[in-house]
Please model this.
Amino acid sequence: MVKQSFDFSGAQGQRLSGVLELPPGTPKAVAIFAHCFTCTKTSVAAVRVARALTRSGMAVLRFDFAGLGLSQGNFADSTFSADVLDVVAAAAALSDRLSNPQLLIGHSLGGAAVLAAASRIASVQAVATIGAPFDAAHVTHLLGDSLETLADVGEAEVDIGGRRFTLKRSFLEDLRHQDQAARIQELRRALLVLHATQDRTVGIANARAIFDAALHPKSFVALHEADHLLTRSMDAEYAANVISAWASPYLRPVAQ
Model:
């Protein structure tokens, strides 16, 4: 495998930091991996899933959303809509520099983002989500007591996973305008929903709601004994192997 830096311009003009994993020879498909809320492209799930998919013959781009990791931007100005547009920008950059992406993979809120972005990327044939919420606003439960301050004052520092982040009211207002149910029903791409049965961050009921809202072709795979972040290597490897096998019938060969 070959790992390359892959920086590109996001939808709002910031330089976004990405890593492109390439298999030997011509990739059988090109994929984008969108990481979880406040995570980065170096999260355990992002790295392990991307590399396992690359070993199966795919080229995979994982990148930091604006304001996170090595990407430019202020996280306080981030919104779900902006993340969706950055997935679209990543697809455009791949189309210019390698080939059109055919597969989108998203973890947690990144899963909601790829569901929202898929219809804007004509080349995408399949979408896989891992531990994704049905409603993007589900993420607000992570904000705890800061949620009221954020709504009333317009800005608040929140603790997420032991790290401090600043968010603005615009983040909440943007979430209220996301109609994920309609997007999922109108997806018109093959969909794979993967979810840990014991996920305590995003309950498995979200997987059921996504699956029920989607039209065929759709599939569901339970990740037995995995946690939300796929911290065990065997869970990330399993998820990647399932995604690779499931997606193969839907992916067109990459143009030479």
